[in-house]
Amino acid sequence: MTQPRLATQTEHGRMYARSVGGEPEVPSITTVIGQYAQDLGGWHGYMAAKAALEDDRAMRASRSVGLKHAVIRDAAAAAERYRDQAAARGDRVHNYCENVALRAMGMDHAVDDSREELRQYGESAWADRFDEWWDLYAPEPLAAEVTIWNRTVGYAGTLDLVAKIGGRVCIIDYKTKGTDRKNRVKPLDTKVIMQLVAGVKAEEALADPDTGHWVDWEFGDAPVLLGVALGETEVKPQQANPDLLKHNWFKFCALRKVWEYHRSVDAALEESSLQPLMPVVPPPPRIHMPEQDAS
């Protein structure tokens, strides 16, 4: 379930309510982390150039103004198309992973249906590699797609998996990744540490979304925070360095304040007729007085 039932997309990013139909109250973990600016200009430029060179219409575009603009328009949107396609693939892979965990917990699941969906999109390799990882590490799932809340800082989120591996409780976050030129899965972004530490710092877990019933979070002392890069050719799990958790928690809390500042400024502008920038007129001309004769 990639769109949690209590999550809603708003003008301030994804936000969570306390119950189904309730008002969004706090930002999601990913929305908070999204306040950290990242320069993607080079990647956007590369994707646009690649799309233009690979476009079959490019050779004919010089003879048609309309066709040239169509090629340019499509190339400019290449990065967004790639992002949306990767997000949709990630949703399908996460759905399969969740159903595997539900099956292991003896709960209702749709493993066969979710795997068939991956097959239809030519993405069975992700499921194959995940199954290999699951068999190798033998996780004992305790909770899958669990929604958590932190009242003190003010955020919520949904964790992919809580499981015991080798007898130790692990908070696990899956990241679907592409494959590099060496046929290896691409590395995890270090921002995943903030996501994991925000998860372990939760105070409540959702028990019933319809009634808005929450219970105390019982995995706040989980000793292992695990990011798992899922690719077509391999799966690479990596543990967040325990010595860096405190620093990443402070960074996450600072980004939460940044989100609040952005929202408060936007709200102030919406509630008033004040303009952010005002015109400035030139000053009046200076009047030069004749000098008095000292004699």
TrEMBL record:
InterPro entries: PDDEXK_AddAB-type. GO terms for biological process: DNA repair. This is Cytochrome. Residues 68-196 form the PD-(D/E)XK endonuclease-like domain. The keyword Nucleotide-binding applies. Keywords: ATP-binding, DNA damage, DNA repair, Helicase, Hydrolase, Nucleotide-binding. GO terms for molecular function: helicase activity.
